[in-house]
Design goal:
CATH architecture: Alpha-Beta Barrel
Distance between the termini: 11 Å
Number of domains: 1
Radius of gyration: 17 Å
CATH superfamily: Aldolase class I
Oligomer: single chain
């Protein structure tokens, strides 16, 4: 069985890590390099860095951040925000990122998913979906959650898989920053309708929430921010607790009787 992944997310604004509630009310959470090294030491499986206002403000890419992170990290990391061309993907990957996350640009130009997967490999292309419940379905939003698209989230998930995306980063705008649990219904719907990995995001406040996202939401990975940034618990705390509940986790060798579980592929 593939191991389940725990992924801290670092939302970047003006070079600092920030966190809000349902995409608003941002407050400072620290320096991205310092937090990255902390999570590296805590055995995070991956890290995600999202410039949350890049598309909205039409700013440039965080190529320099990718290069600096590549020098200090020993785990895979994803960079997103303001990526709209194949050349943007090339710059980010060349700078050292393992994956890129595209959201707004993917909706505006779905061909970017296909072209990116063909040129750089599906494993490099993560499509981020910011979704909000609208009655009995969930709608995709772009531009950092500012613009509704009218696109049904489940249909969009199938489309991005068909176009070659290697992974979906699914964020519930309703649950984001609430610390009351992930949106298990939409997470399960999408996880069970596509064959590519789905990362659950938005709402993690307790270790039980992580467990639910894996078991009831059928997520392949779970992403969180507030609980890690503000020290509610560490990545290692979560992994040990979930391992005790018989979920496959990649633990440091000394934490698993010298036998490290293989990371997910």
């Amino acid at each position: 069985m593939l191991t389940k992944r725990i992924i801290p997310c670092l939302d970047i604004k003006d070079g600092r890590v920030v966190k809000g509630v349902s995409f608003i009310g941002l407050r400072d959470a620290g320096d991205p390099l310092e937090l990255a090294q902390r999570y590296n030491d805590q055995s995070a499986d991956e890290l995600v860095f999202l410039d949350i206002t890049a598309s909205h403000e039409k700013r440039g890419l965080t190529v320099d951040l990718a290069a600096r992170l590549a020098r200090v990290l020993f785990i895979p990391f994803t960079i997103g925000g303001g990526i709209s061309r194949l050349e943007d993907i090339h710059q980010i990957v060349t700078a050292g990122a393992d994956k890129v996350s595209i959201n707004t640009a993917a909706v505006l130009n779905p061909e970017l998913i296909s072209q990116g997967a063909e040129r750089f490999g599906s494993q490099c292309i993560v499509v981020a979906m910011d979704v909000k419940r609208q009655g009995e379905h969930w709608e995709v939003f772009t531009h950092g959650g500012r613009r509704p698209t009218g696109i049904d989230a489940e249909q969009w998930a199938l489309e991005v898989e068909r176009r070659g995306a290697g992974e979906i980063l699914l964020t519930s705008m309703d649950q984001d920053g609430q610390l009351t649990g992930y949106d298990l219904e939409i997470t399960a719907r999408i996880s069970q309708s596509v064959s590519i990995p789905v990362i659950a995001s938005g709402g993690g406040g307790t270790i039980e929430h992580f467990y639910d996202a894996f078991t009831r939401g059928h997520a392949d990975a779970v992403l969180a921010a507030s609980v890690f940034h503000y020290g509610t618990f560490t990545v290692s705390d979560v992994k040990h607790a979930l391992r005790a509940k018989n979920l496959p986790m990649r633990l440091p060798p000394e934490s698993n009787n010298g036998q490290e579980l293989a990371p997910s592929g």
